[in-house]
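Hi R.,

Here's the chain you asked about this morning:
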Amino acid sequence: MRFSPLLCYLLTPSGLPAGVAAFLVLLAAKQRAMETAMIQGGFGAAVAPVEVVPLRYCLYARKSMESEEAQVLSIDSQIKEMMLLAEKEKLDIVALKRESHSAKEAGARPVFNEIIEEIKTGKYNGILTWAPDRISRNAGDLGRIVDLMDQGLLQDIRTYGQKFGNNPNEKFLLMILGSQAKLENDNKRINVKRGLRARAEMGLFPGMAVCGYLNDKRKGHECELLVDSLRASTMKQMFEKVGSERWSGRRVYAWLKNDAHFTSRSGKALSLSNVYNLLRNSIYCGVFEYPKGSGNWYTGKHQALITRDLFEAVQEKLNEESRPKKKFQDFTFTKLMICGVCGSGITAQEKQKGLADGSINFHLYYSCCKSKDRACKNPYIREDRLIEQLLALLESISIDEIGARHLIEKEVSRYNKLRAAMRDGSEKAKADEIDVRRYAKYLLENGTLPEKRELLGHLKGRIVLKDRKIALEN
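And the predicted structure, written out as tokens:
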């Protein structure tokens, strides 16, 4: 009996997706071609004897950990039932494979992929499993199985109540049942989304409770949020400190960690990014967006921890923090030194001071940026005094320790040749030539920012600033 694609479509409860229907039409065409070839080969031609290939089976038991397969037999139960079937029908089982993995995505199951490879090597040519949907719930893996049957590598598939041999009709039925399993998955996904959207319209938050709330676990109260009595007051204080007292998110983070010793339900301290995400979450004022980024807003039935006015004030403060700061000013020595106390980098800031005569003095100060220790006490140093110490450092170290020596010597040589060309040809360069050390000091005092950085960047060591003193460490 040959199955018509239209008949199979009508027998399917909910209809098939367009891609699956197209595949079935192609399979039906292939079926007709194979039958035609069989009929044509039967007239006027000697029929060659068919070699009987012994069937060797792999028993494959699979159960997904997802809730929709809660009613499927456990893996051990599947194995027990199929072993009884194999004993009854005298099937030769040469391998047993078990797997706990969803079959929704093609190529995602490692044990199933292993079975495909072993069939290709000829280890076995049959599969024994509880039901067709144990093999696949997606078109990709199902297509791989049918391809193996077309190549003659897979001869037989046995389930608890059905048999699928390597012939057009039974392969077609296998594709129908496999496609129906995929259709069930697709429909479940649509139904779940529709159910969550309906809950959101009822004011119920369809997701895990955020910090400060708990999910109601009572039957019939799913998606309802309860106030977490241990953490709700701290969450409210967090919003008040930002919205009313104008605290920054980083200051709130330090307060939660060091003063409040606040932890989440899992017992872990909140990260800085978590703090900002919570401060941006509107669910605390009684409204939420679902799905996130969709623009669909709902008023929740849960108890709000803060007012909408306070939430808006918090957003205004956070937006101020995220606004572009003034243009970055690049300072000469910031990237060339580290703090000798905590190991952080060195930053700089410009200060101005008004004098009695009405003029203004500008000074540049270098200090620890405190990235590794917020409580670092390493004092600042003025740039003019820093340069004095750098000059003294160049005076105290050996010439070989000036790693840029070859660059300086090249520049000095060019300068000396220029001076010689401008003098009388008979006069040899008797003038004092600029030595490496003097030129290095000249660059440090009068060079451009790139020249100063290149010079100090080639020192054979690391410049460390500690207690307003610098040192060269190897």
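The CA atoms of residues 99 and 111 lie 6 Å apart.

Let me know if you need anything else.
M.
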